User: Fold these one by one.
Assistant:
Number 1:
Amino acid sequence: MNSKVTLILRILFGLFLLFFGANKFGHWITPPGEMTADMQNYFGALMSTKTMTLVAIVEIAAGLSLLLNKYASLMMLILMSVSINAVMYHLSLDAGNTMMAGVMLILNIVMLYNYKDSYKRFA
């Protein structure tokens, strides 16, 4: 892939992760629509076990690692679990708002592909 395109995607994805990770602490973006009882139960469980705090920290760390281009290959592996869980949540509980989670998953896959040479030394 073209290095300029990769650079732009890396910076945009880093800003995306930094913004949405920080939003989990600041709550300046409200979720669209009403939450169903299943959604409230799910988020209640995530909040009571501090899992959402961990997700926010992972997103912020991944965003910073992409922006600084330090340890980004490791953070993309760690972030993949967050990306897949976000997509699965939206597909099962909030199908109308799947787009942002899908974008995150696609960008995560693109970044994993971009850092594929980093993973070869462990094979």
Note: The chain has one domain: 3-27+34-120.
Number 2:
Amino acid sequence: MLQKEKDSLQNNNYVEQVARKDLGMVKPGEQPFVVKDLNTYEGESNTTVAPAEDASLVERVMEAIGSVLP
């Protein structure tokens, strides 16, 4: 198992994936976003609507999501 992990660490794409997922690292110029409280419970909702003045934040989040999706 350790040999397989060692071999995987020779692949730059794998190293980047581990750095992003496990270590929370980002590339220079990227903006990290932390989304909290996504869980909803029966009868409760944690959903909020962004006010109009926060539209630029929403646009930036959508842009960030679009940049990581194929």
Note: The chain has one domain: 2-68.
Number 3:
Amino acid sequence: MAEILEDITAALDGKNGEDIITLNLKDRGGLADAFVLATGNSETHMKTLTETAEEVLERSGRKCRIEGEHSLNWRLIDAGDIVVHVFSHKGRDFYRLERLWEEE
């Protein structure tokens, strides 16, 4: 799994995604083994980041489901064991997922 996470973060970085982090959730059970979080500067940038992450995941053989495609603040790419969250700056500040998962 480490390789696909590296591929996703590199691809998002290549598209100028900001504040890209990976959260390892494997031992926390439930939702996914890992979250990748990234921030975009505009709706168009968020769309580009979402499409980029989806392409990387699909190349690895994972099926993706995208939620929030029209949201201005948060888009989610669910690939089962990996979930990628693409935020606007406002959405990242509001949802603060990294803080939520750090506190558990």
Note: The longest strand covers residues 18-24.
